[in-house]
UniProtKB/TrEMBL annotation:
It catalyses: D-erythrose 4-phosphate + phosphoenolpyruvate + H2O = 7-phospho-2-dehydro-3-deoxy-D-arabino-heptonate + phosphate. Its EC number is 2.5.1.54. This is Phospho-2-dehydro-3-deoxyheptonate aldolase. Binds 1 divalent cation per subunit. The enzyme is active with manganese, cobalt or cadmium ions.
Amino acid sequence: MNPAIPDLAALHALGAAQQPSYPDAAAVDAAVARLRSYPPLVFAGECDRLTDKLAAVTRGEAFLLQGGDCAETFDGVTADNVRNKLRVLLQMAVVLTYAASVPVVKLGRFAGQYAKPRSSDFETRDGVTLPAYRGDAVNGFEFTEAARIPDPQRLVDVYHSSASTLNLVRAFTTGGYADLRQVHAWNTDFVQGSAVGSRYEAVANEIDRALTFMKAIGADPDEFHRVEMHSSHEALVLEYEHAMTRIDSRTDLPYDVSSHFVWIGERTRQLDGAHVELLSKIRNPIGVKLGPTTSADDAIALSEKLNPENTPGRLTFITRMGAGKIRDLLPPLVEKVEAAGLQVAWVSDPMHGNTYEASSGYKTRSLADVTDEVQGFFDVHRSLGTWPGGIHVELTGDDVTECVGGLEDLAEMDLGNRYESVCDPRLNRVQSLELAFLVAEMLRK
Ligand code: PEP
Ligand code: MN
């Protein structure tokens, strides 16, 4: 290992929040050793390309669309599930690109999003208290004592599940499915006649006409036939991220080859903590979630530590303030970070500041709040002359009932119909596409 990267024990010694308490140290060592022997899931050069694209976002020349499940599951690694997620992301990207004429950087929150920080270490149901579920990377969702024991073998399973997902994504995005001539096909089996489905059809028709025209004049660039989709997840479990950190033979520099982009969560962004230390050493493009307690000084210190060379594209700040707070809390943050001359891409996570418990007990979010936070994010950046660089959303390509509101008017009463998330509520396909149209309008103004 490169001497610049602390070993795992040294990292843990710095203090690491939200880590599993593994009962068997030898089993952890065995899993880590196994992971270290596996080939990279992504290449350093791909990570660098994403950094270049995020530099364009930082300069105000592109928009980031980052989305996927709150928590992927091993069972969720099926062709249908991955394709549906990809499809909604492709549809959203088309809407944003076409309606706003801005290049869209496509970043899946998938192929590695298996570990979850929790607000409580325990969960109580019907008087029984067990360790909280921390994602399939750590323990089982099933509410039994045995399932909730952290098992390091699961980290090996994360690798294989991520590899399968990424393989399928690469096949879909370069093998014809993402071809722009499929723009209508992505919409079939969509609730035909749904308002948002018809609106999408109108965009698709216009794109079709443009493609036909391009073809007629003899232009058929590669970009029409494939998209570049990158992967991302929260870098949470140190054993996994450390084992997947490798020295790139081309440049002799360390990369976390588990994903193109990794981010530090709101609960693990302590300046002197292990997560910030590890991510300060890798060369991937990285993000940090910034919640409502973030001061401008915190953000500046994080940028100085994580991006000391002030490289555009290296650092993305993902703000998640809540719809009711963003207009007050974001301006001083952006102003001071920008005044310090720091190069960051600003992205809005309109999900995590807007979660509440419905009367039925389901964790939910309303599309109105989500939209309002994005609108607040745009308003603040527009008034400061800075660039609202993108959105980071929890979504799925399926017709789940986890968030309320939207054109289908999903009510709290409906949440039980198809609530499948093992963690936070996701926008369903209709809600996701609706959000894309709303954001496209904000971008156009
Ligand atoms: C998440 O993205 O699922 C998450 C836990 O976010 P945050 O760290 O912003 O709370
Ligand atoms: Mn979440």
